[in-house]
Amino acid sequence: MEHITLLIGIVIVTALVFDFTNGFHDTANAMATTISTGALAPRAAVAMSAVLNLLGAFLSIEVAKTISSGIIDEGSGIQPEVIFAGLVGAIIWNLLTWLAGLPSSSSHALMGGLLGATVAAVGTGAVNGDVVVMKVLIPALAAPLVAGIASVCATRLTYRVGRHADQERTAKGYRAGQITSAALVSLAHGTNDAQKTMGVITLALVTGGALAPDSDPPVWVIASAGLAIALGTYLGGWRIIRTMGKGITDIQPPQGFAAQTSAAATILASSHIGFSLSTTHVCSGAVMGSGLGRKGGVVRWGTAGRMFIGWGLTLPAAGGIAAASALLAEQGDWGVTTVAVLAVALCGAIWLRSRRAPVDHTNVNEVEPATPEAAGIPGPAAEPTPEPGLEPAPEPGREPEPAGVVTTAIQAVSPPPPPAGVGLASTEETPTADNTAGRPASASSLS
User: Fold this and answer.
1) Is 30 part of any domain?
2) Is 43 left (phi over 0), alpha (psi -120 to 50) or beta?
3) Where is there biased composition of kind Pro residues (predicted)?
4) pTM of the predicted protein model
5) 361 lies in a domain?
6) Mean pLDDT per segment of 10 residues, for the chain of length 447 residues?
7) How many domains does the chain have?
């Protein structure tokens, strides 16, 4: 029993670490557009989001029930070390995508980690496939489409309603609306994502015999999960904020307001139903929709394509890491210790790598220059390189190009020019149309 108690404690700490990474990984969902348009200063934005994430954690437990007793069968013999391995897979994938500035789904990283570890340790029989399909996979496909379509319509309506209004006055109003809608997204994020960690901790307590099956999360679990995600949110995932705010499309205040309102409505509705959707997918879809909804707006499909690839890889990648961790952790105490040491070492290496090009609140709105080829746009054709010695004459006002090889060689063997005024007219004919044909070119004509 002491071993189980210690192991459950390790799982709880690891779950809170994941909740922390979830917080700074998903800060961009609520605050990227608000920061990019200047509606709020970066530090003030993440502070407001952190407080509202904490409050949102206490509003519902429906998603927590989906995690604790929905996708995994509690009576299948799953052990706490399997849950620990699933959390390790989710944490490592979260950090890798954060390093790349990629807005991937923390929710799907957690789902993939739990599913991969469970299948590796117990088998597919412990997975409730119908719940995974209905409450994870279908929402993953539908949520960004629903939020994107809603954002397109809201953006077009917003610009149509305000097309004759004074731009300065409406800009202030839209900024106030952005702050309000960002607050709503943060609250919705707390009601959805914080509950996932609550569900994992509750599942660990049930598998360890500390709680009865189908129990609701205890109050201390709700409070600790809310505090962990709030702390991570306050630190800010600046790399992903930069991608969401500047990398997908250029956002104006009306677009930011429309995108965040659409995302908040989608997230709150799904939390009420109990769908464990990805807030990242929802908010990214809403941002892309706002770019398509504004006349003249542009969506950078190169960045969007990277995001789609990351979304597709999240479940299998996190699941693969978790499966390998589960096989090792099941070997006993030394296996659990080895997984923990390797995870800490890898997380530390990722953090050290991120320090080479840090992104924080001081440079989050700076856009790194990207080549046209990286964005999927053909670059300008390269100018042909002239043959040595046949370079064109420099334009007036420009510095002359260095002499070619042929010019240099001819100048080296040519006789020196005669002194000024000594028989120049008599020694050199003026070329005409009749006598130029067949004459060798002078040195100046080759340079």
Assistant:
1) yes
2) alpha
3) 381-395
4) 0.73
5) no
6) 69 92 82 82 89 85 64 74 92 92 85 91 84 80 86 88 75 81 82 81 82 82 91 84 79 82 80 71 87 81 85 91 93 90 94 89 67 41 46 46 45 50 44 44 40
7) 1
